[in-house]
Design brief:
Shape: globular
InterPro entries: Ribosomal_Su5_D2-typ_SF, Ribsml_uS5_D2-typ_fold_subgr, RNase_P
Pfam family, one: Ribonuclease_P
Protein name: Ribonuclease P protein component
Keywords: Endonuclease, Hydrolase, Nuclease, RNA-binding, tRNA processing
Number of helices: 4
Order of helices and strands: EHEEEHEHH
CATH topology: Ribosomal Protein S5, domain 2
Number of domains: 1
Radius of gyration: 26 Å
Number of strands: 5
Strand content: 5-15%
Largest sheet: 5 strands, mixed
Helix content: 25-40%
CATH architecture: 2-Layer Sandwich
Length: about 180
């Protein structure tokens, strides 16, 4: 698992869209493709253009296939004390490493979107707070995991092409319906 480090990486991952939410956290994901361009393949643009400014190029590690990238955003607005922010970040990275085999090769950002009540969680490093954070993060990451492919039932008729007219039902012949012709 690689960690997001730069502001453009975080911005690109968050632009990918929200995958799941809990009352206190949101998970954003930018899917990475195997055909992501290498940094040297991108044409420079503008006077200060860096080839690593492109969304996919931000996550290219030369000589490797797409992997899971993770970043944690715990703003001061929702966790005032640094010890609380650091504790939450540690929980995010620890749980994400446990879920790594089930996550898509993508750039993920776990963002704290609401504060934990300081009256309920007095100590920043209390076991009660750690358990509450861990429970929500487990729920958040479980929603984002790759679901195993469901076996499809064998269709008796071939699948219809999109926009193709549906076949007409067969009309029973008089012999099949039990009627005799006069």
């Amino acid at each position: 698992m690689q960690r997001l480090k730069t502001r453009p990486q975080f911005q690109a991952a968050m632009a990918g869209g929200t995958v799941s939410r809990t009352p206190h956290f949101a998970l954003h994901r930018l899917a990475l493709t195997a055909a992501a361009p290498a940094a040297a393949d991108l044409p420079p643009e503008g006077p200060d253009a860096s080839p690593m400014r492109e969304g996919q190029a931000l996550f290219v590690v030369p000589g490797s296939h797409p992997t899971v990238w993770l970043g944690a955003m715990v703003p001061k607005r929702w966790a005032k004390r640094a010890v609380t922010r650091n504790t939450i970040k540690r929980q995010i990275y620890q749980l994400a490493s446990e879920f790594e085999p089930r996550l898509l090769p993508a750039a993920h950002v776990v963002r704290l979107r609401a504060g934990f009540d300081r009256k309920q969680f007095i100590s920043a490093t209390s076991e009660v707070l750690k358990q509450a954070v861990r429970a929500e993060l487990t729920q958040l990451l479980r929603k984002a995991c790759v679901q195993p492919a469901k076996p499809q039932a064998k269709a008796s008729a071939p699948a219809l092409a999109k926009g193709a007219p549906a076949p007409l039902p067969a009309v029973p012949t008089p012999a099949q319906s039990g009627m005799e012709s006069a």
